[in-house]
Write a structure and sequence with these properties.
The complex is a heterodimer of chains A (473) and B (202). Chain A is α/β, with parallel strands linked by helices and 473 residues long. Chain A has 17 helices and 19 strands. In chain A, helix 3 links the parallel strand 4 and strand 5. Chain A starts with 5 loop residues before the first helix and ends in a 5-residue tail after the last helix. Chain B has 202 residues and is an alpha/beta fold. Chain B contains eight helices and eight strands. In chain B, strands 1-6-7-8 form a four-stranded antiparallel β-sheet, with no helix packed on it. In chain B, a hairpin with a 4-residue loop joins strand 6 and strand 7. The chains are: A alpha/beta (473), B alpha/beta (202). Chains A and B meet through strand 1, strand 2, helix 2, helix 3 and helix 5 of A and helix 2, helix 4, helix 6, helix 7 and helix 8 of B.
Chain lengths: 473, 202
């Protein structure tokens, strides 16, 4: 018998039927919902006289539209208030568990799944959000869906989907100091292209992933979709199991051994057959920064912007459009570019370890946020915020001039009050640099690691974090 | 409930040139705050339209010559990024019945399928050729017969790819998946029993 991948094992185990050749009905073990992509789904159910099939398998929170500053209800923005009330009405009616601000459990949906112990190996997870692949860090098959499919999952706990191919991505060796999980995924996307993952699930592995913490694995899996892979995952191991233990929804002590046996059984077999395998060396990766309007438009901080479309592996029209939008010149240096904002947050990098690193970096030399720069710290969840407070990290950051906000998606997507104005330039730990992404149709976003954003925040310009914070071998 | 048959479509085309056109561009996030999809046709490419105006030209979605077009012809990785169904909902409500392109983001493709909007895959040469033909002559007639597997532009047939399963779902009016999924209610319950784990809010 040929070995199987985790993707294949978990997919097969959850297949209810083959609806038509190549289209499978897949059972969804965990459904996460938020306020933006669900009101129409609930409305469609109502129109059709359908209820929520297994409300105990769906969990809700509010993250996209929630303000991070003026959080009292009703929200100042009427449409946002409507969205929040609609979600509350729907979950109450259906009997869906809601992680709410009032209970201190609210947060970005991809932060609270793992935090609550809901995200576990070997389960299928869906959410009306493309960054659902974050949960793949635990060895789950997790992917984003649209609102009609949210309707289907609510109504049947299943959806119709095709089976993906699997590409194994190995990163072996040792990352140099100053190079982080965010740099690894930006490097992978740069190499494979923003559309390189079409039709694939990405299985990340190798020595670098074996050593990564769960938070680092989540950062990488989170951005799988930026490489067009709908789903990305890491095989579970002791690091995974240690993270899960003792959380509100993790298996109880009495169930633990049986569940562990299951988790071990769904790991990719050593002789698993992959549709594609790529290998990278950790030593080749330097701190990365995006310069354009797509996630593969990136360079390592020690190199210059591409001088021409060939160097950027783009066509002329796309290259010109990106350079013009960003107001950059081909071949110039990116270091020294003045920033207006620094954003530390989003489902990619808003966990305790991200902010802990920032606090450590600025503490070593009493760094302050540069004059004229607004630097936002937006914890991924209320629990993350409480933990940061306990560790004294928030005080350190506030003293250094960072603005501490309440949890939410914040600047990442321009749906709440945290938005760029005009053509402001933002150094960001989020996941997308698309045109207009941060709410201003001409706003500009540079995606990088928390250490790189911190370097930008304290110097007021794009700089190599290794130089600013004296990070050496 | 029965859904509409999508089989024969004819009309005119709208060329939208560019790779990696993401769903934030198609439907900027600020328009996602409405509780229904009904107004979304008005917001498609809202920011791109303003940006084009500032540069002194009309974005294809507002150019008078392309008003009334119902085939959208795009390049590669169309609809990448956010999973927002608001993007295809907006395109459909604007008046597009079929999208032809080199490649589509999977979530976007699947969202289009879920709302009865076929996305046909063609070679880069064909996509560019059709875009050029339409740009030169906006009244060019396009017709599609999914059952016959025929796409005809200006009298010439072009090969395209569409998964046979999806093709038959469109032509038999079964692209709305909820009913087919509900039919397997017993199998769903059985699967739930069989799974070696249980996540529950209880």
């Amino acid at each position: 018998m040929m070995g199987k991948t985790l993707y294949s094992k978990v997919f097969d185990l959850h297949t209810v039927s083959e609806l038509k050749p190549g289209v499978f009905q897949l059972f969804i073990g965990l459904h996460l919902i938020h306020e933006v992509t669900t009101p129409q789904a609930f409305a469609m159910l109502e129109e059709r006289g359908l209820g929520v099939k297994y409300p105990e398998l769906t969990f809700a929170t509010i993250d996209h539209i929630i303000p991070t500053k003026h959080t009292q209800r009703p929200f100042l923005d009427i449409l946002s208030e409507d969205m929040a009330s609609e979600l509350e009405r729907n979950v109450k009616k259906a009997g869906i568990r809601y992680f709410s601000p009032q209970n201190g459990e609210q947060g970005i949906v991809h932060v609270i799944g793992p935090e609550q112990g809901l995200t576990q190996p070997g389960i299928t997870i869906c959410c009306g959000d493309s960054h659902t692949a974050t949960h793949g860090a635990f060895g789950a098959i997790a992917f984003g869906i649209g609102t009609s499919q949210v309707r289907d999952v609510l109504a049947t706990q299943t959806l119709a989907t095709q089976k993906l191919k699997v590409r194994r991505i190995n990163v072996n060796g040792k990352l140099a100091p100053g190079v982080y999980a965010k740099d690894v995924i930006l490097y992978i996307i740069n190499k494979l292209g923003a559309n390189g993952g079409g039709g694939y699930a990405y299985e990340y592995g190798g020595e670098v992933f074996d050593r990564f913490t769960m938070e680092e694995r989540m950062t990488v899996c989170n951005m799988s979709i930026e490489g067009s892979a709908r789903c990305g995952y890491v095989n579970p191991d002791q690091i995974t199991y240690d993270f899960i233990k003792g959380r509100p929804y993790s298996p109880k002590e009495s169930e633990w051994d049986a569940r562990l046996k299951y988790w071990e059984s769904i790991k990719s077999d050593p002789d698993a057959i992959y549709d594609d395998v790529v290998n990278y060396r950790a030593e080749d990766i330097a701190p990365m920064v995006t310069w354009g309007i797509g996630l593969d438009q990136s360079i390592s901080i020690d190199s210059k912007l591409p001088a021409n479309p060939e160097e950027a592996k783009m066509n002329l029209a796309g290259f010109t459009e990106a350079m013009e939008y960003m107001q950059f010149q081909p071949g110039e240096k990116i270091t020294g570019k003045k920033i207006d904002l620094a954003f530390l947050g989003s489902c990619t990098n808003a966990r305790v370890s991200d902010f802990k690193l920032v606090a450590e970096l600025i503490s070593q030399n009493n760094f302050k946020v540069a004059k004229g720069v607004q630097a936002l710290v937006v914890p991924g969840s209320q629990k993350v915020k409480v933990e940061l407070e306990k560790l004294g990290i928030l005080a350190t950051l506030a003293n250094a001039g960072f603005e501490i906000r309440e949890p939410g998606c914040s600047m990442c997507l321009g749906m709440n009050p945290d938005q760029l104005v005009g053509d402001q330039l933002c150094a960001s730990t989020s996941n997308r640099n698309y045109k207009g992404r941060m709410g201003s149709p001409t706003g500009r976003t540079l995606i990088m690691s928390p250490a790189m954003v911190t370097a930008a925040a304290v110097t007021g310009e794009i700089q190599d974090c290794r130089n600013i914070f004296n990070i050496k071998n | 409930m029965s859904s509409l048959i999508v089989n024969q479509i004819s009309g005119r085309g709208l060329p939208l040139i560019g790779d990696d056109i993401d769903t934030d561009r198609i439907m900027p996030a600020r328009y996602l705050k409405e509780l229904t999809f009904s107004n979304l046709g008005k917001y498609v490419f809202a920011d791109e339209i303003i940006a084009a105006e500032k540069k002194g030209f009309a974005h294809p979605f507002v150019a008078p010559l392309f008003q009334g077009a119902n085939f959208l012809i795009v390049n590669s990785n169309f609809g990448c990024g956010s999973s927002r169904e608001h993007a295809p909902q907006g395109i459909k409500r604007w008046g597009i019945d079929c999208i032809i392109g080199i490649s589509f983001s999977e979530i976007f493709f699947s969202n289009c399928y879920s709302i009865g909007l076929p996305c046909l895959t063609v070679t880069p040469q064909i996509a560019e050729e059709i875009q050029t033909i339409i740009a030169a002559k906006t009244e060019t007639q396009i017709s599609l017969d999914l059952t016959a597997g025929k796409l005809i532009v200006a009298g010439q047939a072009y090969p395209y790819l569409l998964d046979p399963g999806l093709q038959s779902a469109f032509t038999t009016g079964n692209w709305d998946q909820t009913k087919g999924l509900l039919d397997n209610e017993k199998l769903i319950a059985k699967k739930r029993q069989e799974l070696p784990y249980l996540i529950s809010n209880l």
